[in-house]
Amino acid sequence: MVSIARKNLFHDPGRLIITLVGLTASLVLIFFAMGMFIGTLDESVTIVNHTDADIWVLQKGNKEILGPSIFEDIVLKDIERMPEVGSAHKLVFSNNLIEKDGRKMGVMLVGFNMKDKVGAPWDIVSGSLAGLASGNSIMVDRSVERKFGKLDIGDRFTINGQAQRLAGIGTGAKWFINPYVFTTYENAQTLSRMRPGETNFILVKTKQGSDPALVARKITSLGTVDAYPTPKARRNTRNFMIYESGMGMSLGAMAIAGLIVAAIIISLTVYTATMERIPEFGTLKAMGARRSDIYRILLGQVVISVVLGFLLGALFGFVVSAVIGGFTILPMRITPLALVIAFSLTLVLSILGSLFCIRKVNKVDPAIVFRT
Predict the structure, then answer these.
(1) Nearest-5° angle of CA 60, CA 117, CA 197?
(2) Which residues of 154-192 are buried (b: 16+ CB within 10 A; e: fewer)?
């Protein structure tokens, strides 16, 4: 039965090629949307994943780390006095603009305390943290080179009109198209034009044996800030990206559109191949073929189409991902789980779309074989 399904599909190579081109294009769209979606979600919590903290303290009413958060840091003393708290650290984490030779780029400015290094860069490829101690110095993610070209230690940048010296280059620190720029807490506070006594976040490390969820609720009960255990802060940020930012919904809609297009293309291909061979199905019925045999032929056509289209789509999807990653800083990540989901959904939708063919074949009269 599988050989008959294969024969039906390959009977007209031209049509099959056109079908596979359309199917491949729709699957590339799916992979692009899923890759952007996964990459954006992963990068939205990069700072959380690479910062050693049990609790994130945010501005009152805020739930996720990408939203505006600024509050009086006097609350730090109240937090430090709690017996369950091992240490607490202020962190600047805000949107900013960096400029070099007349070109500007949006960045995420990260200011951390040089003494405890909570929030410091995690993967340095050149330079060192010690270079930041000299003041008016920054460390950038290497993705900024896509905008400014090759960088060297000692290069000069400007942030909010203030000259900064490049002390180091790291990697793997960015969110969407905004690379991270690290500096000392004091320098970041000045560059962000924050008033003395203000901060963006407080990162808390609890004492061994303490429950971060209970400590977070205790901090929130102070009434001036909100606090979340790190897993909750991470989850809130991801949910914000999916449901509230609009980015998650738009990328999800793009992926769904690609799936629907792929299912329609496969269904039309199977339908056309089936309608052209109605007499053959009549012959099979006249020879005693059961309904299950007919179903296997039709579903075989669907599976062969999906497998061929998926393999080509995956190949071109990875090529597109590599090209985008090579020439832009857009987040593109295609994971094995994403491939499994894309294949499964495409197959299921295509099978559902081919049910009309099954109904048509079920109505075929075996006597058609004996008609002239």
Answers:
(1) 40
(2) ebebebeeeebbbbbbbeebbbbbbbbbbbbbebbbbbb
9: nearest Cα among 298, 264, 279: 298
Quick one: tokens of 23?
């199917």
- What own/partner pairs with CB < 8 Å and gap ≥ 24 does 234-240 have? 234/45, 234/48, 234/49, 236/63, 236/64, 237/44, 237/45, 237/48, 237/64, 237/65, 237/66, 238/41, 238/44, 238/45, 239/64, 240/44, 240/63, 240/64, 240/66, 240/67
Residues 365, 350: Cα–Cα separation, whole Å? 26
Joined tokens for residue 27: 């699957």
User: Distance between CA 336 and CA 322 in Å, rounded?
Assistant: 16
The pTM score is 0.81
Cα four-point dihedral sign 7, 9, 12, 13: negative
Tokens 């008959």, residue located: 4
Task: Give the Å distances, CA to CA, from 330 to 32, 53, 74, 163, 344.
Answer: 11, 28, 38, 28, 26
How confident is the model over 148-183, as pLDDT tens digits?
Answer: 999 999 999 999 889 999 999 999 999 888 999 999
Q: For the chain, what are the domain ranges? A: 2-43+246-370
Give per-residue pLDDT as tens, 67-76.
889 999 999 9
